[in-house]
Amino acid sequence: MRIGLDMMGGDFAPTEAVKGVKLYLDTVASDVHLVLIGDEQQLAPLIAEAQLDQSKYSVVHSSQVIGMDEHPTKALKEKPQSSISIGFHLLKNEKIDAFISAGNTGAMMVGTYYSIKAIEGVQRPTISTLVPRENGTYGLLLDVGINADCKPENLAQFALLGSLYSKHILGVPDPKVGLLNIGEEEGKGNLLAQATYPLLKESKQINFVGNIEGRDILSEKADVIVCEGFTGNIVLKMAESFHEIALRRNIQDDYMKKFDSESYGGTPVLGVSKPVIIGHGISKGTAFKNMIQLSQQMIESKLLEKIKESFVVVAKDAQQ
Amino acid sequence: MRIGLDMMGGDFAPTEAVKGVKLYLDTVASDVHLVLIGDEQQLAPLIAEAQLDQSKYSVVHSSQVIGMDEHPTKALKEKPQSSISIGFHLLKNEKIDAFISAGNTGAMMVGTYYSIKAIEGVQRPTISTLVPRENGTYGLLLDVGINADCKPENLAQFALLGSLYSKHILGVPDPKVGLLNIGEEEGKGNLLAQATYPLLKESKQINFVGNIEGRDILSEKADVIVCEGFTGNIVLKMAESFHEIALRRNIQDDYMKKFDSESYGGTPVLGVSKPVIIGHGISKGTAFKNMIQLSQQMIESKLLEKIKESFVVVAKDAQQ
């Protein structure tokens, strides 16, 4: 198993990326081979200092970097030697089995769309966030930003993608799916939510439990919460701001600490045919380590095969 | 000045409503006359116990109550002797100058639409929530639930209504208006946000400062944040859940305490021709007191006259 890591992506690259690799190799036993994509000259002293096991990694040189604020399509076109461009090239040509970056999110999305395909039947790939709950488990909220406007069918697909992720990666046997809404009863909400409810109710592939209000996002009422990416992104960033406020105000609380994006690393792009994981720009060592581990889990659990099988059913149902 | 209060609305009525009246009369000097609408038999012993100043209030008997979960339109039709029905009757006939209830929100909204008119030029009346900031001031977020689907023009009107409220009630001289969105630059967001941005930018009646992301809702970047009621309601309820979690986990922090709905009482229905204030179902004494005080402020500041004047300008601009 070969996992590719963009060593130049994120606010603290490449130092923290190397730290993440070290942490992963030191703490996780696996036969994963890491492909470190980045500037050889910058990486060499950091790798030497970290004393990485040479049998566990190889370095692929990249001479360019896509900045965090560059225009995604333009940057990918003009910088074929960037770590992100090379990463997708390797992924497309099966030189690596997964690709991770904490770099320019837009470039990662565009790269994903251009280099690898959506799984057959998936209308819109999606990104999610883990939702920490007080009982120590994690819920999943999706979409959190790449699909700002959605149709009911998109949300129904997010529900299925999220359920499979919750089951195979988070270990929830029969994930409860909730529709983010502004009232509990069927018929409540905006036009999108009203039209989505019956689709979720009728689906035999998910365990739909009804509407979930804003006050229940952090509860255990649902394991998978679906919404369009506009609301999902606002919720995600507001939760992050609560975490920052808690830090700034020196609030010592184990639960509040779990909102730290560092603890879960990054989000996979769900619905595409290969594992792509996008990290937060502020990722540090632990986040990189967690993203490598998540890639490994996605490959070992055969999540993408399971998504493919489920969407064959979706495609068949659509034809009937 | 006569302010009408539904004594039967809310989870802890009439006990907490009477406490609120007592608190108001004891702590706020004013020539307000309170009209207490409720069941005389239930109110009498509570009022006697509270030793209210008899010159400051009168009781209007109501023999029916609209429950928190009743269907709004049906309940208002079938219960003409309910405290909410009587309250709107008094407001319509100028027996009171403002009406407050912590009862059935739907019934309050329907009652408002049927009994008193929207201000000329206002397409959609709206409700808002105060947003506590760490520096002790309050921002305003609107709409928070009654307009789940909006057009760009609606959001532009919320911006103006919110600005006037921020200026005349919250005392912010030139309120900064932000558009809730999922990116900072113009052109970001869903179709609604993309179409709303230029309207806000062009408006001469507001001080537009651009897009506001989820992480900045609690900051001082904007004093008035506009969005459709779906996202606004999710944000509001999620913030309330953070407050509940902080309470449950015994987190002692002055800022977190400010998310208690008790501290600001209720939301006025903005855009209608008379002051109507809707309280949270869980309102207790302080919330009732604060709602009475807010009604008084709305009348004394002549907020509604100012809204009327501003919307004459809107109507004229629309004709040109």
From TrEMBL, chains A, B:
Gene Ontology terms describing biological process: fatty acid biosynthetic process; phospholipid biosynthetic process
Annotated keywords: Acyltransferase, Cytoplasm, Lipid biosynthesis, Lipid metabolism, Phospholipid biosynthesis, Phospholipid metabolism, Transferase
EC number(s) recorded for this UniProt protein: 2.3.1.274
Keyword Phosphoprotein found: no
UniProt KW Transcription regulation keyword: no
A GO CC annotation given for this chain: cytoplasm
Record InterPro entries: FA_synthesis, Phospholipid_synth_PlsX-like
Domain of life where this protein originates: Bacteria
Catalytic activity: a fatty acyl-[ACP] + phosphate = an acyl phosphate + holo-[ACP]
Known pathway: Lipid metabolism; phospholipid metabolism
UniProt record similarity statement: Belongs to the PlsX family.
Function: Catalyzes the reversible formation of acyl-phosphate (acyl-PO(4)) from acyl-[acyl-carrier-protein] (acyl-ACP). This enzyme utilizes acyl-ACP as fatty acyl donor, but not acyl-CoA.
UniProt protein name: Phosphate acyltransferase
